[in-house]
User: What shape does this take?
Amino acid sequence: MNKRIIVAGAGFAGMWAAISAARLVHLNNADDRVDIFLVSPEPKLTIRPRLYEAVLDSMDPSILEVLQAANVKYIRGRVVDIDAKNKTITVSKPEEESTVSFDSFVLAAGSQVFHPELDGLKEYSFDVSSLEKARELDNHLQALARAPDSQARNTVVVAGGGLTGLETVTEMPERLNALFGAQNKAQVIIVDNAARIGQAMGEQACEIINQALSSSGIAVRTGVRVSAISADGVTLSDGEFIPSNTVIWTAGMRANPLTRFIPGEHDPLGRVTGDSCLRAPEASSIFVTGDTVKVPTDNVGNYNVMSCQHAMSLGRVAGHNAAAELLGLPLHPYSQPKYVTCLDLGKWGAVYTEGWDHQVIYQGEGAKKIKQEINTQWIYPPEPNREKMFSVANPDYVIVP
Assistant: This one.
């Protein structure tokens, strides 16, 4: 009976894990001895870094031909349980639940938005963490354009000043202009508990970010947090009430809950603390990758963040090692010392930084061109050509500007 590698998740880490595993199996002439499966509800890669945009077309391209070209078998379903001891997973399919055994398993199920206990958050807020949620927000904004004029209709509040919050809020003025008309009375507000929006990006980038916010007419509320949300507004921790029919929640992500089935140490985000080869140290033959793992990116104390930049490389390493373990080959340690950030700032442009200290390299239109290239080319699925895919699927391959 053939050995079986199962990858859970079709995101950036999952897709590249499957391709990387297939590459190593093929290079070692083991296609007839090792089967690779990818499990996900749909054979699609959701381009999450773009879900703040107004146009949502082509945000979930199919990867079925990519998988077929790599000789990866697709299982339509959702992993709902992992039995690390007995090396099985439970897959919920449209017609049934089934138990599937594995010899090597890669958890690449991604992350989801974090909803703390907050009055009205689940009932009255929107987010851009999934294509479904992004479409809900777009439909809501389209409906508002037909609603009677009011302060609540015209006000959008974005809760959270991280990268997703900043990209969402700086895109919003143009979206509202397109929907409500150029002479609209729309107001866009960003709320964050930090003393200054963007301060985590360092002083230089922070100045640029606040310049972009100001030039876009975006109001800032700092040093406060959202304490309650209702159908007609949001209450802040300092007591201010902002009339608004649109509150977008971007204040944090957590690892997919499937990580709870993996024994061992977990960080506050729910990620499994992996070893240098992305193994779950207390679960034999299980690898954790993408947003489900916490691991050093270098030897000076930096760790991966929940981003496609890290997920793609983490996926390549995890898939390679899942196959290497079965083939009796040396495992490849994960290393990704170069860290870049390219933050979209709407009509103003963008800011591109390098290093964990966020040294600004490009800003404005120059950075915007890089962001557009990243978003429309680099992170999309590869061409379904085995030779071309395998040439960029090795564990050392990293795309950086």
In short: The chain has ten helices and 23 strands. The chain has a mean pLDDT of 96.
